Amino acid sequence: MNIFLKIFIIFNLLLLSFISLFINDLLNIWFFMEMNNFLFISFLSFNLKSKKMIFFYFLIQIIPSILLIFYISLNFVNFMNNNNKILLLLVYSSLLIKLGLPPFHLWMPLISPHMPWNTLFLNLTIQKIIPFYLFSNIFIENYLIYFILISCSLIPPLMMMNLTNLKKLLAYSSINQSSWLMILIYLKNSLWLSYFFMYTLIYLIMFLFLSFYKFNFNFMNNNNNFKMIMLIMMLNMAGLPPFSFFLFKWFSIFLISSNFMNLFIISMLMIFSSFIMFFLYTNMIYLNMFIFILKSKMLILNYSYTNPLKVFFLLSMIILLFPLIIMI
């Protein structure tokens, strides 16, 4: 694929997603989302060898798009009211399909192994901005948020038990992280944008690193720098202190305990799920991570900035600890 065409598509994906955050009209948001999907499908056509997967992705995306425009059209002519449970359920379902969240999540881990690292990164991050923003602009019923939080906390750990494919693991990890985004959206707190931004940065570092080294287990087992960076990422994604996700999750729990005690038990389930996810990460990637601890030479870093591994390490530490630095 031509590098300039690739840059053009990615730039427009980012631009459309960013502009949509300043729009309140549902029809315009829908239009930007479909333009975004069109560009991403074009990007897929250049990067995916399997045309069946491209058509499969197109089919998955077109169904919720039709449901959404149907809802918006009825709303536009005042044919319905906002309390119509059936039509609201259609809207919820269409957005859950777009995001790849339960019970419409199976397409996400199915198509993920066929995507290159850069395409998978876009699918798990940039492509989710507008659907999440749409969720923030509609009323979310209590039963829906309960279902989303519980299913996103339980299904990924259960499905990841016997996984060996890292791309599928990251897809399920994205589903699990979505529960924290959804709870912040439900609380009508703009912090969800900061959480999503940090989530995107962490995934960006991971995907750049993995695509750069053409990830394989032999390289991982013989490279302690790789294990160090990946361990830091997984600690952050599990929400362990003092990393950034811990601060976001701690603040979410604080908001729930202050104003929404009906969600407190579910939030405890989400925390427990995060620890299970961390165990699954380490079980798959760091079976020999204690070898790293025994190799004391790693503690004395040779700051050769021509080595991209050191650059990745420094960049990841700055990003992961950035919220903590601000608080200090």
UniProtKB/TrEMBL annotation:
<feature type="domain" description="NADH:quinone oxidoreductase/Mrp antiporter transmembrane">
    <location>
        <begin position="25"/>
        <end position="274"/>
    </location>
</feature>
<comment type="similarity">
    <text>Belongs to the complex I subunit 2 family.</text>
</comment>
<dbReference type="GO" id="GO:0005743">
    <property type="term" value="C:mitochondrial inner membrane"/>
</dbReference>
<dbReference type="GO" id="GO:0006120">
    <property type="term" value="P:mitochondrial electron transport, NADH to ubiquinone"/>
</dbReference>
<dbReference type="Pfam" id="PF00361">
    <property type="entry name" value="Proton_antipo_M"/>
</dbReference>
<dbReference type="InterPro" id="IPR001750">
    <property type="entry name" value="ND/Mrp_TM"/>
</dbReference>
<keyword id="KW-0830">Ubiquinone</keyword>
<keyword id="KW-0812">Transmembrane</keyword>
<feature type="transmembrane region" description="Helical">
    <location>
        <begin position="193"/>
        <end position="213"/>
    </location>
</feature>
<dbReference type="GO" id="GO:0008137">
    <property type="term" value="F:NADH dehydrogenase (ubiquinone) activity"/>
</dbReference>
<keyword id="KW-0520">NAD</keyword>
<protein>
    <recommendedName>
        <fullName>NADH-ubiquinone oxidoreductase chain 2</fullName>
        <ecNumber>7.1.1.2</ecNumber>
    </recommendedName>
</protein>
<feature type="transmembrane region" description="Helical">
    <location>
        <begin position="7"/>
        <end position="23"/>
    </location>
</feature>
<feature type="transmembrane region" description="Helical">
    <location>
        <begin position="86"/>
        <end position="108"/>
    </location>
</feature>
<keyword id="KW-1133">Transmembrane helix</keyword>
<dbReference type="InterPro" id="IPR050175">
    <property type="entry name" value="Complex_I_Subunit_2"/>
</dbReference>
<keyword id="KW-0679">Respiratory chain</keyword>
<feature type="transmembrane region" description="Helical">
    <location>
        <begin position="311"/>
        <end position="327"/>
    </location>
</feature>
<keyword id="KW-0496">Mitochondrion</keyword>
<keyword id="KW-0472">Membrane</keyword>
<keyword id="KW-0999">Mitochondrion inner membrane</keyword>
<keyword id="KW-0249">Electron transport</keyword>
<feature type="transmembrane region" description="Helical">
    <location>
        <begin position="260"/>
        <end position="280"/>
    </location>
</feature>
<keyword id="KW-1278">Translocase</keyword>
<feature type="transmembrane region" description="Helical">
    <location>
        <begin position="225"/>
        <end position="248"/>
    </location>
</feature>
<comment type="function">
    <text>Core subunit of the mitochondrial membrane respiratory chain NADH dehydrogenase (Complex I) that is believed to belong to the minimal assembly required for catalysis. Complex I functions in the transfer of electrons from NADH to the respiratory chain. The immediate electron acceptor for the enzyme is believed to be ubiquinone.</text>
</comment>
<feature type="transmembrane region" description="Helical">
    <location>
        <begin position="55"/>
        <end position="74"/>
    </location>
</feature>
<keyword id="KW-0813">Transport</keyword>
